[in-house]
Every structure is written in C-alpha cells, then in structure tokens.
Design goal:
It is built from three helices and 31 strands. The chain has helices at 5-14, 302-305, 333-336; strands at 34-45, 48-56, 66-72, 78-85, 94-102, 109-118, 123-132, 139-140, 155-168, 171-180, 185-192, 199-204, 212-221, 224-232, 246-255, 260-268, 276-282, 288-293, 310-311, 318-323, 326-331, 341-342, 350-352, 355-371, 374-381, 384-390, 397-404, 407-415, 418-423, 427-432, 439-455.
Length: 456
C-alpha cells in the first residue's frame, strides 16, 4: 500500500480532537495524533531545533512508518510541521529511523533513513537519502545511498537500519545498526565527501552489543568520540536492561584514517523502565542535547485500552557532558524555567502532576508520592539511589543507580504521563506514569532538603 504525506496531514487535521487527552503531556513532546517511537534526524537549523520522529498517524499502534516533523526554539514548545517522509515509493513499506546533517554551507538539511521493504517472504533494509532547502519540504533521492551491495559479507540485509550521519573534519561519516549472520550486533561505519556517494569503512563491535544494534548516534564531546546505541538481547548483567533491551553509551578513541577504534568506557544511559532510541543534537551554543523515546517495546497496553488521541512521548531534553570517561546528563536549563507556582514537599500535601522538585537526599532519605497505593518512592540506601514504582497500568519495578555518594542532588520531573528523576548527573530514571488521579499525594518526605518545588 502507498501512503502519501498529504493524506497523513489531512488525517491529522481531521482527528485532532478525537480521543482522550487525560494523559497528554504538558511539557514533553508528543505527536498530535497517532503513534510515535524513535526520534529521528535531530538537527539545529536556522535558529530552530528540528525534531523528526517515527510516526504512524492512523493508529495508536505501530504501523507503516512515516517521518513526522516539528520544530522548536527551546525543545519545550513545539510547532508541528507537515509530515516530512511517507512510504510512498514502490518497494517501500516503511521509512524507518535515521539521522540528519547540514551540508557544508549550512544551507540544506540532508536526512538518511532506512527504506524497509517486506512481504510474506522477504525483509530487506537499505539506506536512502532525502534533502530540503527550506527545512520543511523534502525531496527523496530515487537511488539508494547505501545499498545492500555495500553491506559487508556476513551481515543480514534484513537487520541493517537506522543510518545516522555526522560531519567530522571535512568528511561525513554514517553509523548504521547491523546484525551478523551469527546473530551478534555491530555498528557499520560508512563515509562520504559530499553525501552523494558512500563507501564502507569498518565495523565497530563489542561483546555488549547483544544480538542487534539499533539507532546508533556518533558525536564528539569534550574531545572524545561518544557512541550511543540501543541493543537487543543484551547478554551483560552489569548494564541496565529491560528484558534484554538496553541503551548504552561508549566513550571511544577512533582513528578513521586507519580504521581502528578502542573503547575507554561502556555504560548504560538510563536506569528506568522506559527509555529507548536516544539521539542527540548540538545547538547554536555548542551544547550537546539528547532526546529519547520515553517508552520500551512491549511495555504498556494502557493507552490502547483508553483510546488516547496519541500514543508516545519523548524524554525531557538532556544536556550531555563528560567527566573523565563518564557521561553526565542534566535536564536542560530551559526546562526548569517553566515551573513557577510553588508547592510544599511535606507528608500529606498534594503534588500536581505537572511539577518539578529539586531535593538534596542523603543516607536514609525517602520521598514517596502517588495515589491509592500506586506511585514512586525515591530513597538512598547504602550510598545508592533507588527508585521504586508501583502501577496497575504499567510494569512495577525497583531500579538502582550506578553511582555511590553521600548525598544526591535529585531533580524530579512529573508530567501527566511520565516521571523522570535525575540523581547527581550520573543516574537518570525514566518511566511512564499512568496513575488515574488528578493530583498525587506525598506519603513520605524524610530527611530531605527541598531546594525548590514548583508546578505549571
């Protein structure tokens, strides 16, 4: 079946008010209607952050993938733009994930995406190219940018996806998620001088790459190469995962000329239950900012049962930095400026769902909020930061951070359908929150120093 961008845009306009908005986020990004998953093609262009996203407007479930498109000055307030890509070409059953880069004159946006083709017998994935001179209207290039003939021997054409370009020096490099025939994950590196012809360079592999790598993102930070990626069937007990699905970062030394690399440090990106497909962008001031899908595959049927207007939300934008070889993540400064009405953090007080709390927590500190036996508990025990979540409409879990400390500066962001907790920059916990109430109740607030608490 052929899907058209114009048809998708018309359907969106006609269905903006069809469906429940009870859990629609107030300050996290979500689609107007329909399903979203991976963020795609994050780019800073002409004074705006452009966010593309895996999108199926016609259902609350995953379907033939389009690229939705929005832009923002601050990654909090968004303007929705026309759908950028649709599976409108022959032998194209989905425009899967990818990335974006500016040309060397900073005049055009170039995106790479995976053309997915499948029927009852075949799945084939190849990398295609589209471009835009105005940041809104995109033209597809008819021939493959990286075809299956450029897949090195021993890799599966059915598991070859999510190209993400980056410009380093005077050359473009593209990282693509891949799987060997032996069912081990890898990142394949390609290069181009002009984003028209690409050549294979080398494969990046590691024992922690599971059976398949998805959504790789390569960028420079503090003079180091950083690679983020999502992994299927992770085999490590040391790294955080949900049923084998994990999100990792690797701080690396890469020599592109000699096609060599080494790993300095590999670790998990998020300790929560809902985080996948991270992608980053550098803004006009040199900050590296990351977004991810605040969800996990096969986690939660609650939006389907309640016929929401949309299904899917992105994390709060996070500013990234390195401390040695450890990646630190902090909530974007602009995000904290939107909370202006104070509330009390005391046992028995109510807590608005769209709120922010900055707390200093030490050994024995406990902070709990929720409603009717459901909710979240933050605590410091044996020098570690723990988050426990109990929900009837979502998985329940107890998650522990990686860092040990005497005190943690914890920042709690609650939105209508999510909770994100930052603990000292090192540990972040992301979770969906489908607790049926108007406001939360604070049930515990022990050994806390409240630096700030406010809501929208």
């Amino acid at each position: 079946m052929i899907y058209l961008r114009e048809t998708a845009d018309k359907y969106i306009r006609q269905n903006l008010n069809n469906g429940s908005k009870d859990f629609k986020p107030k300050y996290h990004f979500s689609a107007q209607v329909g399903w979203i998953n991976d963020p795609n093609g994050l780019i800073y262009y002409d004074g705006y952050f452009h966010v593309f996203y895996q999108y199926y407007p016609y259902s609350l479930q995953w379907g033939p993938m389009h690229w939705g498109h929005a832009r923002s000055k601050n990654l909090i307030d968004f303007e929705y733009l026309p759908v950028a890509l649709a599976p409108d070409a022959p032998f194209e059953s989905g425009c899967f994930s990818g990335g974006a880069v500016l040309d060397k004159d900073n005049k055009e946006i170039h995106v790479l995406y995976t053309r997915n083709y499948e029927d009852d017998k075949t799945v084939r994935q190849t990398q295609y190219h589209a471009y835009s001179a105005d940041g809104v209207n995109f033209t597809k290039v008819e021939r493959a940018a990286i075809g299956e003939e450029q897949l090195p021997p021993g890799f599966r054409v059915s598991s070859f996806r999510d190209p993400n370009p980056v410009r380093i020096g005077d050359r473009y490099y593209v990282v693509v998620g891949a799987q060997r025939e032996s069912k081990t994950g890898a990142v394949l590196v390609y290069s181009s001088k002009d984003m028209s012809e690409f050549e294979y360079e080398f494969a990046i592999e590691n024992e922690n790459f599971g059976e398949m790598v998805e959504c790789p993102d390569l960028f420079m930070l503090g003079g180091r190469a950083v690679l983020t990626l999502s992994v299927i069937a992770l085999k490590s007990d040391r790294l955080t995962n949900i049923d084998g699905k994990a999100n990792l970062y690797a701080v690396m030394d890469i020599d592109f000329e000699n096609k060599t690399y080494s790993f300095r440090h590999i670790d998990s990106l998020d300790e929560g239950t809902d985080f996948y497909a991270p992608q980053s962008v550098e803004d006009g001031n040199g900050r590296r900012i990351m977004l991810a899908w605040l969800d996990m595959w096969n986690n939660n049927p609650f939006p389907l049962r309640n016929k929401f207007v949309s299904n899917g939300v992105y994390t709060l934008p996070r500013e990234l930095s390195l401390n040695g070889d450890t990646l630190l993540q902090y909530p974007l400064r602009e995000a904290k400026e939107i909370f202006r009405t104070p509330f009390d953090v005391k046992k028995g007080c109510s807590m608005p769902k769209t709120s922010y709390a900055a707390l200093e927590m030490e050994e024995g500190s406990v902070f709990s909020f929720g409603f009717a036996g459901e909710g979240f508990t933050l605590r410091v025990t044996d020098g570690y930061f723990f988050v426990e979540q109990k929900q009837k409409n979502h998985i329940s879990a107890v998650r522990r951070g990686k860092a040990r400390a005497e005190t943690f500066n914890a920042e709690v962001f609650s939105d209508n359908c999510s909770v994100e907790i930052f603990a000292g920059g090192r540990d972040v916990f992301s979770a969906q929150a489908f607790i049926e109430c108007d406001r939360y109740v604070i049930s515990q607030a022990e050994k806390l120093k409240v630096r700030r608490a406010a809501y929208i």
